[in-house]
Amino acid sequence: MPVGHLFPTESVLVRARANVQGSQRDSASCNGGANVPTDKTLSLAEAITRHVRDGQTVALEGFGHLVPAAAAHEIIRQGVTGLTLARMTGDTLVDQLLAAGCVTKLISSFVGNSSAGSLHELRRRIEHHDPEPLEFEEYSHGGMVARYAAGAAKLPFAPIRSYTGSDLVALNPQIKSVTDPYGGGEIHVVPARRC
């Protein structure tokens, strides 16, 4: 089950809420009708163990003081591999996950870190395929936000006008062009991101 930035995705929270409500009903029937809430709080290590598996897609989002470094470091400690990482800002967190062998594909809209210098592991993977190539799917920030919004709304894709004239359309086959059914001509769409 994938993890969305530091917290589980909406679908995980909905299932957890349903489980809590169900366990409250079950415990109420066993305890003479008393509601006994079940604590589902997990440590970060337990959450990563339960919800992040080899080969999954995970979104680790956050900027500045909200970068989920602890979650990334726990993924590294647990030796999770083969991940597809969705992260709008590819920074030192991405470099660390790559160097630890956790990530085989990156979905991002910006890679760089002005305060910490060049992302050496990321550059090595993309420019020299060393020690192996990195699959890289690039979007604009607006494209990534549109993907997350479509995923949260359970839509298959989201329209985005800002790709008109962009080179990303030629570089990323996931960015498609469709005819506006309301007569507005061609518009680009991006697939929903559900992780």
From TrEMBL:
Keywords: Transferase. GO terms for molecular function: CoA-transferase activity. The keyword Transferase applies. InterPro entries: CoA_trans_fam_I, NagB/RpiA_transferase-like. Transmembrane segments: none annotated. This is CoA transferase subunit A. It comes from Saccharopolyspora elongata. The lineage of its organism: Bacteria, Bacillati, Actinomycetota, Actinomycetes, Pseudonocardiales.
